[in-house]
Write a structure and sequence with these properties.
heterodimer, A: alpha+beta, Alpha-Beta Plaits, two-stranded antiparallel sheet, B: alpha+beta, Cytochrome-c3 Hydrogenase, chain B, three-stranded antiparallel sheet, globular
Chain lengths: ~140, ~400
């Protein structure tokens, strides 16, 4: 029976730097497969809305502007997204990808959590038709 | 140890929890004590019931894969795997062998992470914080591997219905192997610490001895049962995914005390290291996903069982032909093992209670499921909210 079996660990650690990172000052590079913010490319989208149906968190809304001309807009809710990448799997036309660079997504305001994707014309039309300018809650 | 039952009528009850009963999860325990010795123990669970089973009935088959993944934060892949395996049987979809092997690979990496996490928590409960810090430092290796492999530290989302999302590149293979070499060296050291450190052994050796017949009678599962000599492991008894291609050896100890539980879990780590290396060397070729997975699944029911790091996870899934399950029933290993804490508590010192509790590697969030009430009058079935409310009012009125 021994006592202080971990003494060697402690002794070695005296000569090592701490393993913890000073996060905001030192950033470790994120792995290539990291699942970050969603990006949508409207070019190949057929509006099947499978991404919408399969999303476990209802974070994706595919909104039809004109079905015949295949004009769609995506409203993406960052705050609901669980970053599971099921939408990437569900999309048969590879329109969706999750960024491995954008993962620091916290915000003190609500507005940045709703992201709109689409062609400029479609977005303008959609904004004019369907949305009212959102009022930011005034900080107390 | 023998139970010391107080002849006095009045009992001194020490409540522990619901906040922070040894672990950072809610559960309420009441220990009646005679001096320092526990004479009675009761548990109350259900503080983190989240209605996941009911929620599963309102989501489609694919969405549920991610819902069940969130039943447990530590063994998340295992829950998704159990669900996916069950749904794939229902849908009669053949999963490619490469996908099954990658599923097993992630499951074993997750087991390494879970056992190291438990090892640290158990050391912390024993008052051995040095061991806790070092084992958690080393656990970061496996977390980084899992993040590089799957894209997230927890809730890996490795599964899709009919396969997996990613392949393993040569670079990742090297990172995994290097990480495992380091962890294997460290695990040898930890096994030495857990079996030879005099002060640590005072908290574990001869404490909470569960005999084989007791373990069988109480229906204990997982490493807790294997520490009492129960030769039971779903990976061997009913091989799922790729465990028929890559068999494991059961690790069994016979002592049944807390030390044996440490030894079983640490030796299981070696088995996991071996299996991960074997899978990486012999990864079967082929696709990662089945060609097509139906959105609607024909009526039927299935039982799916998987060996989680804590023991057997049990899923019952029923389909009525729609794109949503009619019922998903989950039973997690902590609920099976909770009986052992209560039966072992009697006769032990109060100070041993945190160690006994942590010895089963409890996960309260996993085990809080809905229950159906069977009254003493033989009445079964669901209660309405109004009925439950009235029951509560009557219960407290009668109590006073």
């Amino acid at each position: 029976m021994k006592i202080a079996t971990m003494f060697s660990d402690i002794w070695q650690s005296l000569w090592q730097r701490p393993v913890t990172q000073k996060y905001p000052f030192e950033r470790k590079e994120a792995p290539d497969r990291l699942r970050g913010k969603l990006h949508w490319n409207p070019e190949n989208c057929t509006g099947c809305a499978l991404c919408n149906k399969d999303c476990p968190a209802n974070a994706i809304e595919v909104i039809t502007i004109d079905k015949k001309e295949k004009r769609f807009v995506m409203r993406y809710h960052l705050d609901r997204c669980t970053y599971c990448a099921q939408c990437v799997e569900s999309c048969r036309f590879s329109c969706i990808e999750l960024s491995d660079k954008e993962w620091e997504l916290a915000s003190t305001h609500k507005q940045p959590f709703t992201v709109y994707y689409g062609n400029e014309d479609d977005l303008n039309e959609f904004m004019a038709k369907f949305t009212q300018p959102e009022s930011e809650p005034t900080p107390q | 140890m023998t139970a010391v039952i107080s002849p006095k009528k009045e009992k001194f009850i020490i409540p522990i929890g619901p906040q922070h009963p040894a672990l950072k999860e809610p559960g309420h325990f009441e220990f009646a004590v005679d001096g320092e010795i526990v004479t009675e123990a009761t548990v109350r669970l259900g503080y983190v019931h989240r209605g996941i089973e009911k929620g599963a009935e309102a989501r489609n088959w694919t969405q549920n894969l991610y819902l069940v993944e969130r039943i447990c934060g530590i063994c998340s892949h295992i829950h998704a795997l159990t669900y996916a395996l069950g749904v794939e049987v229902l849908a009669e979809v053949e999963v490619p062998p490469r996908a099954q092997a990658i599923r097993v690979l992630v499951a074993e990496l997750e087991r390494i992470h879970s056992h190291l996490l438990w090892f640290g928590v158990a050391a912390h409960e024993a008052g051995f914080d040095t061991l806790f810090m070092y084992s958690w430092r080393d656990r970061e290796t496996i977390m980084d591997i899992l993040e590089a492999l799957t894209g997230n530290r927890v809730n890996y989302s490795a599964n899709v219905l009919g396969g997996v999302k990613f392949d393993i590149s040569d670079e990742q293979r090297k990172v995994i192997l290097d990480g495992l070499d380091f962890l294997e060296k460290r695990t040898h050291h930890y096994l030495d610490v857990a079996t030879s450190d005099g002060m640590f052994l005072q908290r574990t050796r001869g404490i909470g001895i569960t005999r084989l017949q007791d373990a069988q009678r109480l229906g204990i599962v997982g490493p807790t049962a294997r520490a009492s000599g129960v030769m039971r492991d779903v990976r061997v008894d009913a091989p799922y995914a790729a465990y028929d291609m890559f068999p494991i050896n059961i690790v069994v100890e016979t002592a049944g005390d807390l030390e044996a539980r440490f030894v079983v879990r640490l030796k299981e780590l070696f088995e996991s290291f071996r299996l991960v290396r074997e899978i990486l060397d012999n990864l079967p070729p082929g696709d990662l996903q089945a060609k097509r997975f139906p959105r609607r699944i024909k009526p039927g029911e299935v039982i799916s069982r998987v060996e989680a790091p804590r023991g057997e996870v049990f899923y019952y899934i029923r389909s009525n032909g729609s794109d949503m399950p009619e019922r998903v029933k989950v039973r997690t290993p902590t609920l099976c093992n909770m009986a052992s804490v209560l039966s072992l508590a009697v006769g032990h010192h109060l100070a041993d209670m945190p160690m006994l509790l942590v010895g089963i590697d409890p996960c309260f969030s996993c085990n809080d499921r809905g229950v159906s009430i069977c009254s003493s009058q033989g009445e079964h079935g669901r209660w309405t909210w109004e009925r439950l409310r009235q029951f509560g009012i009557d219960y407290y009125a009668n109590k006073v």
